[in-house]
Amino acid sequence: MRVGLLGAGRIGAFHAATLTRTDGVGELVIADADPARATDLAAATGARAAGSVSEVFHAAGVDAVVIATATAAHAALVTRAARAGLPAFCEKPVALDLAGTVRALREVEAAGTLLQIGFQRRFDAGYRAARAALRSGALGRVHTIRCVTSDAAPPPAAFLPQSGGLIRDCMVHDFDAVRWMTGREVVEVYARGTDAGAAFFREAGDVDTAAALLTLDDGTLVTATATRYNGAGYDVRTELSGERDQWVVGLTGRTPATSADPAGPGAPVRPWSGFLERFEDAYRAELAAFVRAARGEAGNPCPGAEGLRALHIAEACEVSRREGRPVRLAEVG
């Protein structure tokens, strides 16, 4: 099949290299708002460059599209793919607000097309093993889940206004992973944030560090923390504590943490540097799953509604952070 890749930035470049090696992809056509960037990426990966995004939809004859543009363009491109009858993979989020997300998903529903959302943790070996252990009952009743998402260093200042903020950009992955692993829904949140870092966080109305307490519909308590300032390295972990056992996702020889116990492990020699390195295998697996789904060989592993539900939790956390109070999800959206 011929796949159109929309966006030739950092994640787009990674996806281009992956798609050219993915079974079932016969040709890759790349487009970007900057045609020169698309041309350079196509030359580096053996793909074909399109002169514009419109060319991908109207003249390139693609069978599916992968959307890896700036977030602000996602909803419009999801809508264009639906109206063109094309299966689409879209990096999260579909839109930065609930209303925009719902509008795009209604277009997909009306067209009857496939839309897969890019929550790559669903394809990570550790998260998948933890989900299986939890669902099998091996952990017993799970009473507490602790999530950590920490960037090694802040993103460029220009990224913040288009990212949706720390909670929507980073913690939304934890919200999706918790729902996916447990099969439960979040009913209430309480979130706080701090902006003591660089001034550009305050200028963007964002925070550089946040924490949230989530209550699931069965009473399980979930804590989620995120920061842009984790100098030890990129850190993503999830602990699931049950009455019978406790499992940890992301606890490896590259976890950027040093034990304070003299008998414990020291700092890793090569900690994770960022999300592309940490989740490299997961990103490849999710695109392979998309290609299979687009070819009709498998079901959709992460439909658009899943992205909406995770964003709903993030929106409730933003309301809680701004207003300094617990927020029921039923209040939002």
From TrEMBL:
Residue intervals of the GFO/IDH/MocA-like oxidoreductase domain: 127-244
Xref: InterPro entries: Gfo/Idh/MocA-like_OxRdtase_N, GFO_IDH_MocA-like_dom, NAD(P)-bd_dom_sf
Gene3D superfamilies associated with the record: Dihydrodipicolinate Reductase, domain 2, NAD(P)-binding Rossmann-like Domain
Species this chain originates from: Streptomyces cinnamoneus (Streptoverticillium cinnamoneum)
Keyword Aminoacyl-tRNA synthetase: no
Signal peptide interval: none
Protein known as: Dehydrogenase
Keywords for this protein: Oxidoreductase
Family to which the UniProt record says this protein belongs: Belongs to the Gfo/Idh/MocA family.
Xref: Pfam families: GFO_IDH_MocA, GFO_IDH_MocA_C3
Highest taxon, organism lineage: Bacteria
One GO MF term attached to the UniProt entry: oxidoreductase activity
Entry keyword annotation includes NADP: no
Lineage: Bacteria, Bacillati, Actinomycetota, Actinomycetes, Kitasatosporales
Coiled-coil annotated spans: none
